[in-house]
Amino acid sequence: MPLPAYALAVALAATSVVPAAGAMTAPAAPEPAAAPEPAAAPEPAAAPVAGPIVQMFQWPWDSIAQECRSTLGPKGFGAVQVSPPQEHVRLDGEDHPWYQDYQPVSYQLESRRGNREQFAAMVSACNDAGVQIYADAVVNHMAASDAIGSAGTTHEKYVYPGLYSDADFHDCRRDIANYDDKDEVRNCELVGLSDLATESDYVRSAEQAYLNDLISLGVSGFRVDGVKHMPPEDVGAIFGGLDEVPGTGARPYVFQEVIADQATSAGEYAGNGDVTEFAYHHEVSEAFKNGSLAGLEDVADHMTLPSEQAVVFIDNHDTQRSEPTLTYKDGTAYDLANAFMLAFPYGTPQLISGFAFDDPDAGPPADSEGRTSPASCSDQAWVCEHARPIIAGMAGFHREVQGAELTNWWDDGSGRVAFGRGDAGFVVLNREDAAIEQQSFQTSLPAGTYCDVMSGSLQDGSCTGGAVDVNEDGWLTTSVPANSGVALHAGAKLS
Predict the structure, then answer these.
(1) What is the pLDDT of residues 276-327, one digit of tens each?
(2) Which of 225, 243, 283, 411 does the annotation list as catalytic?
(3) What CATH code is assigned to 5-400?
(4) Active-site hit among 168, 257, 277, 452
(5) Which region is the signal sequence (predicted)?
(6) H/E element, 487
């Protein structure tokens, strides 16, 4: 069975050794507290935000803080998934590829994106803007080789000073060879990465100390990396015992990356929190790539997870590089697929906003030392998918229609669909190469004039883009250009 893209990428660096000359060894981390007595994990927290999650892939902390204030909060995004904040290996000889960040060296908050103070300031700024922070949590493994970390920590494989020693890792010291063998998938090494013994009380308490440190800074949740490489009970024990998010009385939101296959189902992990539904990416991305949208009315029936436990996406940092059915490089087809995801009532949508690349291993824009350059949507090196007009407008649509049922489905049997979300919103998507000319659609919207949020917004009592009238019987008549769309919602209705 083929390995995930991350696994294939890490294989290139699994034997890399970074010179430690001149490096200073980081201070030893404090001993983690003794693990508490095992107890039943509380019920997993539901997604606590109305707006979508956006993965700001490899963005530095200072840049995310600014983007929360200027764009993400005002546009209605609910949460940002940030790249792993812990100290990671430095693969200087590999030109600092993106995947080095998924090889922890210690749990110090010192990465190529910034230090602890910058991370805390970013969390505070985003929370103040109404945007929660979810950290990408790497708890299955540590770095693959002897090297130096982003905070200066020198280490050997299986020996991470002040944190883990040889006894804290599984005895299977070889790569996973048979992905149909569940025990091997969970206990052997993912292309050389030191596989932590997550059944160990010590390992669990060390990881909880790290995650609770992030929570103490205001982090509201976690995306858990590589979950199928850990037993469900280990994941539940680690994340089920975390602290409440300060000032909320709520447990952190958890969603788990599970690339399901014959040996591992997504449902095995649903008791711990939400789970990524990779089948959605395949079906919806393929439909918009080929322009065959009519069958998407029943897409939820083809999924393995119930809507309330599924996290869905058109692409993420792995699929962009390994299964690029649709990515930012596909233009409007990609934008419309994301618009569908943000409008259709299935799952919690997750977007991505990253950097431009041709080499799938390439790291983000950086200086000569590998420190990530400031991210800005005015810099073409950063793609800023979240700021594209269709996607940015549909973030607010998604927030506005939460909880409203699917209504008034229409399709032409091919590449044109329209549907409503009760009396809260209505969307028309045209993936054909010809325009829809003055087509009438039945909606459940109240009568009035609405701004088309795919082409603009409601500002100061007027529409910056198109506007559409809905009559007293709920009908609207509009034209939709080729490969375009129209979206109306109650929050963008003229008074």
Answers:
(1) 999 999 999 999 999 999 999 999 999 999 999 999 999 999 999 998 999 9
(2) 225
(3) 3.20.20.80
(4) 257
(5) 1-20
(6) strand 484-489
